[in-house]
Amino acid sequence: MAKKKTQTAEKPVYTLEEIELFRNRLKQERQQIYQRIRSASSSLTTSRQAGEEAADIGSDDFIRETGLSIMSDDAEKLQMIDEALINLEKGVYGVCFDCGKLIGKPRLEAKPYARLCIDCKGAREANGGMPSDPERSRYLDRSRL
Fold first, then answer.
1. What does the pLDDT read at residue 119?
2. Could you tell me which residue ranges the Zinc finger DksA/TraR C4-type domain spans (predicted)?
């Protein structure tokens, strides 16, 4: 009689050198984002000059809205980077939040704060952003991070 396979989280197989490289990349990206946010926030605080043309004011408003949108995206990336750094400390960095399998090294090299493996990311995109198996997804249980 064949044994039933149980799906468990894979043990990370990255070397200590690779883990340290990922840690350095995450910290470097975090620093770049902080600098971008700092720069954007200082440019957003510039006040309008008396007598400015309406077109200039409209252009300034567009730039301000674009800056706020970029800052929001950067804030989300910062959160993902911080979570990845915490996962490094816990020894679960590079494990997909949905299926528990190891996220491929090429994906982590491209996006070191990735939460999902390629397969689960594709499944979520096809499923309107929801995990294909919500019962297994660690996104729904933040205490397991």
1. 94
2. 92-125
